[in-house]
Every structure is written in structure tokens, then in C-alpha cells.
């Protein structure tokens, strides 16, 4: 009957067969009907015939009313979680909800659920109440609160409510107002103050603090950071709802820098994305399929896109590559010892969140015709809300042929245009916009492309001041401070199964030989047996994950290789707490054995955190031989600003490449054009 149902709107062959049966057995007079009328009548009869079967059939685990076990929480589930907490007295109208999200079921349950075995839905909530942080585990299936407890000594992410509170408190503080008046500023509604996390440098601070540098926005224009008000900075205690202190330094004349960005959004031109191919990936609820690829997609408030059950195949046979992949953390340390700058060591993912990304505009942020995706989260009060179009999926030309060869000998020519699937989000955190693309190629390659753009963080200077060694002059009265961006990605590999190995692939010189005068190089692979951070010398090609319990048709173990690209790692002093709090930035890649809950490269609560949280805590000497392994590659951007990046930065892009190595026995892209 599936063929019949599908063919009513497509091929006529099954319908013709059904029509003949009906004419012969049930409705001989209908033989005089027109074909189109007969087709509509067929559809009606099929629906009537299937009604008893549909009523009797058991509900499937992934039917219209069932969720994939890795789907994010919907509005009803968020409301239920908060309702259960309120019913237990754990939440009031003053409670702030910093996170309400899905608890990933164990791998074994997820894989079982894919065979239509229902799995339990569980949520976690991080709330702030009475100047304390609490965690709740909530059984949504059983409609009960499983656990509730305080987490001592941690500070969760900054919320919009706290951002607004800090601004209101600063504007009402007489010390701050007097300092502004001494700089000729009396209309405080024309002042914008950023709400910045303060880092941690001595482990002595227990208050929930933010710092508030401010900008003169009286001239209007889209660049609100162009006119910093130097020498005034307030520190706000969010729990006490009070301004803790106001620092006032030397008075520097306000910047007169141009505020324009070249054009307005209304005047922006259309985006032409590499001759986009007008083919959309299939998307069944949260499952994405394109060519030989398939994966599950959910958007998390903290991490942004989480891609699970990533499979790649050849000639229709898809096999497991990664169980889960996502961004884990980003640290942006500024390289200035100045009092107003040294604390700026932002952990943007854990302190602010990458999931509530900017709303994307078709034809500008994404190509026209892209599949736009919306997300649902809990707001600061625990109420569900949706962000429309904060991710997009599209297929584009890769700009290069998938393959080509021209043969002079017989004038033959073989060429195939390249195409790739792109999942895009653009989180905006303060002055920076990050264009994050997950790119899936027909060759079986995955690229994680990160583009940094937006507005430089600047400070006002006297035009006659000497040039600084920690910053670049980008306008006559402005400097942009040197800084880094270190992204840590979490790649939970499952090559064919959970039992995988990791090896370092190197190029080494071959031993001298009497066979020829040549001195050649060869490849060498060193197994990694224990968890840890791995350094990359110039001889390292990359890090390969293989399944040594499986062989391809050539007798090789299938694998995927993470390639080393142009990327920076931390070089500042080990005595610097900002380095100790983001230890993941010191190595190009880390390797751990999978353990539930180990998802946070810099720890679960990086805001005002203590040193060596996250990855350093996960290392306990466990074996990674024939184990469930997780790789944590670091993508580093060292940013020395240039005048050409003002008043808005051209996009600076870096990438991580994850490519098949023996996963197939021949070029898998051939099947993409069959």
C-alpha cells in the first residue's frame, strides 16, 4: 500500500493496477469515469480502506507525536520542567533560569531508541536563587523532579535580565554620573555600557560581578563601540543589586571616529554563495539527509548546533563516523596589562551562550532558497520562546571541480562539479560576530569553518600619544588591542562502533639506502594509548581515529583523520590565571575517553571559574586503546588588528578538516553522481 499511496501523486502504474482491480470486482459502471476523476476516487477509497489499520496500529517511537531521543526540548517540555520546579517550591517569580535543556540519554539507549524503543526524556535546569546556584534534574516522562541541589562556589552564564539590571544600576550611581559629567556627558540615555565578565585572578572573589565600560552613542550610527568613554568603569554586584565600585582615571578627549559602516542593512546587497545549487537537503523533523550523509541536528542554548549520529556511506550504505560533534568553548583573552583591559578573558560559550544566535536573513546571511531553521529555548524567567531563522541549511558549489582530468594522449576529459552541504549559524557576542559553518563534502570530508567579523574592541587615546606595543592604531584617536580567539571543539568519534584507536601520523626521513642516491621520506604512525594533550611539531600530518576491529576491502582499518591546519595556541605565562582557566588553548588537540558529562573544555561554569577546570579534570590516566574516544581540537586565531579592519572587520576564517582515511575502499564521491 505504500507504493499505492506514494504513486497517487507521481507514477500512475500502481494506480492503474488498482483501478483495474476495482473496475473488475467492485465498480464496473465507473469504467466510464475520466482518468483524473478515477484517480481522485482511488485516493478516497485507499484512505477509507486504511482507517481500521491506522486505528489499530501502535504508535511508532518516531512518529508525528514522538520525539527523537536527542531532540531539544520543545515549548511544552520547557513549561513542564519549570512548572514541576515551581510546584516543589524550588522556583519563584524572582528565580533566574540560566539554562533549561535536554539531558542526553546514554548512547546505548539512543541507539536502542532508533529501533523504535521509547526512551525517557530528562531535562536539566540551572537556576539562580537567593544568590546561590542550583541544579535540578527533571524526569519529563514521569513528570517529577528527580533531584535538586546547590552547586557551591560557581557562577553560571550572564543573562539579559542581569545585563539590563547592571545598566540601570550604573546609571543611577552618583559616583558614575559625576565622573561622566566631568567628561562633559550629561545625557545618560546617550551612553551605552557593555556588561562584561570579570574573569578570576586570585580565587578570593566570591561575589557575582560584572564590569561596565561605556560608550558615547549620541552621534547615532550602527557602530556603538566607536567612541569609548575612557577613564570610567563601574563594577556591579549582581546579587546585591548594587554598584560595588567606580574606577575613575585620567580624562581623555572623546573620539571623533566615523561611526558609519558603509551601508545600512536595508541597502545591503544580496548574497551570492558560490553559485548555489538549487537543491535542498532532506530534513525529516531533526534528521538531515543529503547525498551519502545523514545526521541529527539540535540547537543548544550554550553550545549552538549539536550534530549527532553523523553517518557517511557509499552507494547507499551509511556507516557511523561521529556519535556527536559540537563547539565546546571559546576563550578571547586581550593582551593588555591596562587596568581596564587585563580582566578581559571572555569565555563566550559558557559565559554568554552560542545557541541564541542572530536571526539570519535569507539572501544576506544565507543564500536565497536556503532551508531556514528556528530554535526554542527558555528565557530568564523560565518561559519558552522561539528564535526564528537562527540557523540555515543549503547546498552550494565548492568552487572547485569535485575531480577532473584531461588526457592529452586520447583527448579524453572527465570533470565533475563539486557540491557541499552547509549548516550555518552566526552567534553575535558583544562586538564580535562568528560565522560558524559545518560543511559536508561529497568526498566524505567534514570541515568546521569559523569566520570572525564584527567590530574591533577599541580604546580612546590622545592623538599625540606614542604607538603602543599591545595594540594597533586604527584611527587617529583609537587603538585596537591585540587578542586571541581559541575555539575548542568536541568530536565524539564512533568509527563503525565505539571501539576506536587514535594514532599520530607523521612524516619522517627514511633510512639511508644503497638502492639509489635519493633520500626519501615515509609515513610513521604512533599509537596514543592514554588520555592527554598532544603537541604538534612540523612533522605531524594529523591525528587519525581508526576501528581496528574492521577491515575495508583493501585490508586496511577504516578511519578518519583530523588535519593540522594554520592555528595558534596559547603562549602567555603559565602563571596567568586566564591561561590556567582555559588550559585547553595550550595544545592543538586533546584526547579523552568518553564519559557522560564531560562536555565542557573549560568546565561547566567558566564564569569566574578557578584554574584547570574541564579538560584537565577529565584526564585520569584512562586508556584510549580500543575505547570510546573523544578528540578536542583547538582552533586558534591570533589577532593583531589592522587599520583595514576599521570601522568593521572583514571576515577572518580558519578551519578544521576531518577527512576519511581508509573509511572507503575507493573514491566515495563517484557514487554521488551516479
TrEMBL record:
TM ranges: 41-59
Which residues belong to any copy of the Copper amine oxidase N3-terminal domain?
156-245
Does the entry feature the keyword Cell cycle, yes or no?
no
Query: What's the domain of life for this entry?
Result: Bacteria
Key words, A-Z? Copper, Membrane, Metal-binding, Oxidoreductase, TPQ, Transmembrane, Transmembrane helix
Q: How is the cofactor bound?
A: Contains 1 topaquinone per subunit.
Post-translational modification here is noted as: Topaquinone (TPQ) is generated by copper-dependent autoxidation of a specific tyrosyl residue.
Record-stated family:
Belongs to the copper/topaquinone oxidase family.
Protein known as: Amine oxidase
Question: Organism source for this protein?
Answer: Altererythrobacter arenosus
Amino acid at each position: 500500500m505504500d507504493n499505492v499511496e506514494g504513486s497517487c501523486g507521481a507514477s500512475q502504474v500502481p494506480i492503474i493496477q488498482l483501478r483495474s482491480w476495482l473496475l473488475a470486482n467492485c465498480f464496473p459502471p465507473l469504467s466510464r469515469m475520466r482518468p483524473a476523476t478515477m484517480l481522485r476516487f482511488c485516493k478516497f477509497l485507499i484512505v477509507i480502506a486504511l482507517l481500521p489499520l491506522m486505528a489499530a496500529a501502535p504508535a511508532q517511537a518516531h512518529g508525528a507525536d514522538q520525539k527523537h531521543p536527542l531532540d531539544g526540548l520543545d515549548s511544552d517540555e520547557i513549561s513542564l520542567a519549570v512548572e514541576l520546579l515551581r510546584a516543589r517550591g524550588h522556583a519563584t517569580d524572582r528565580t533566574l533560569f540560566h539554562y533549561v535543556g535536554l539531558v542526553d540519554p546514554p548512547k546505548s539507549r539512543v541507539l536502542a531508541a532508533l529501533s523504535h524503543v521509547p526512551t525517557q526524556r530528562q531535562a536539566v535546569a540551572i537556576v539562580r536563587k537567593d544568590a546561590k546556584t542550583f541544579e535540578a534534574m527533571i524526569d519529563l516522562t514521569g513528570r517529577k523532579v528527580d533531584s535538586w541541589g546547590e552547586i557551591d562556589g560557581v557562577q553560571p552564564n550572564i543573562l539579559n535580565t542581569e545585563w539590563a539590571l547592571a545598566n540601570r544600576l550604573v546609571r543611577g550611581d552618583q559616583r558614575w554620573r559625576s565622573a561622566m559629567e566631568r567628561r562633559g556627558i550629561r545625557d545618560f540615555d546617550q551612553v551605552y555600557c557593555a556588561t562584561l565578565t570579570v574573569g578570576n585572578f586570585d580565587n578570593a572573589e566570591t561575589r557575582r560581578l560584572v564590569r561596565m565600560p561605556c560608550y558615547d552613542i549620541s552621534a547615532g550610527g550602527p557602530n556603538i563601540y566607536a567612541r569609548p568613554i575612557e577613564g570610567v568603569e563601574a563594577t556591579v554586584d549582581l546579587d546585591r543589586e548594587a554598584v560595588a565600585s567606580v574606577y575613575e582615571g585620567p580624562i581623555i578627549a572623546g573620539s571623533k571616529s566615523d561611526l558609519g559602516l558603509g551601508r545600512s542593512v536595508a541597502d545591503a546587497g544580496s548574497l551570492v554563495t558560490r553559485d548555489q545549487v538549487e537543491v535542498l537537503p532532506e530534513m525529516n523533523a531533526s534528521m538531515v539527509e543529503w547525498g551519502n550523509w545523514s545526521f541529527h541536528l539540535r540547537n543548544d542554548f550554550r553550545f549552538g548546533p549539536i550534530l549527532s549520529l553523523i553517518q557517511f556511506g557509499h552507494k547507499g550504505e551509511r556507516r557511523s563516523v561521529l556519535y556527536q560533534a559540537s563547539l565546546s568553548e571559546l576563550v578571547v583573552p586581550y593582551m593588555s596589562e591596562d587596568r581596564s583591559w587585563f580582566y578581559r578573558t571572555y569565555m563566550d560559550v559558557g559565559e554568554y551562550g552560542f545557541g541564541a544566535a542572530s536571526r539570519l536573513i535569507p539572501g544576506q546571511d544565507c543564500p536565497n532558497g536556503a532551508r531556514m531553521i528556528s530554535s526554542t529555548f527558555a528565557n530568564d524567567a523560565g518561559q519558552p520562546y522561539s528564535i526564528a531563522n537562527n540557523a540555515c541549511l543549503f547546498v552550494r558549489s565548492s568552487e572547485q571541480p569535485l575531480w577532473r582530468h584531461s588526457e592529452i594522449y586520447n583527448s579524453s576529459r572527465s570533470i565533475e562539479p563539486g557540491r557541499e552541504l552547509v549548516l550555518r549559524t552566526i552567534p553575535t557576542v558583544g562586538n564580535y560576530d562568528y560565522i560558524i559553518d559545518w560543511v559536508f563534502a561529497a568526498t566524505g570530508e567534514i570541515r568546521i569553518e569559523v569566520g570572525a567579523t564584527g567590530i574591533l574592541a577599541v580604546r580612546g587615546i590622545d592623538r599625540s600619544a606614542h604607538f603602543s606595543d599591545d595594540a594597533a592604531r586604527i584611527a587617529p584617536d583609537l587603538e585596537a588591542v591585540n587578542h586571541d580567539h581559541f575555539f575548542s571543539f568536541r568530536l565524539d568519534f564512533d568509527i563503525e562502533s565505539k571501539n576506536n584507536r587514535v594514532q599520530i601520523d607523521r612524516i619522517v626521513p627514511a633510512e639511508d639506502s644503497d638502492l639509489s642516491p635519493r633520500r626519501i621520506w615515509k609515513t610513521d604512525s604512533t599509537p596514543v594509548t592514554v588520555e592527554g594533550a598532544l603537541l604538534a611539531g612540523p612533522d605531524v600530518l594529523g591525528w587519525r581515529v581508526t576501528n581496528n576491529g574492521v577491515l575495508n576491502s583493501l585490508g586496511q582499518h577504516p578511519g578518519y583523520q583530523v588535519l593540522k591546519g594554520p592555528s595558534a595556541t596559547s603562549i602567555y605565562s603559565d602563571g596567568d590565571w586566564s591561561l590556567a582557566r582555559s588550559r585547553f588553548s595550550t595544545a592543538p588537540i586533546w584526547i579523552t575517553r568518553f564519559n557522560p558529562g564531560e562536555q565542557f573544555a573549560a568546565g561547566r561554569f567558566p564564569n569566574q571559574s578557578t584554574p584547570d577546570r574541564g579538560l584537565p579534570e577529565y584526564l585520569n590516566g584512562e586508556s584510549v586503546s580500543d575505547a570510546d574516544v573523544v578528540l578536542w581540537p583547538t582552533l586558534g586565531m591570533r589577532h593583531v588588528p589592522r587599520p583595514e579592519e576599521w570601522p568593521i572587520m572583514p571576515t577572518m576564517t580558519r578551519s578544521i578538516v576531518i577527512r576519511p582515511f581508509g573509511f572507503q575502499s575507493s573514491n566515495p564521491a563517484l557514487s554521488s553522481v551516479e
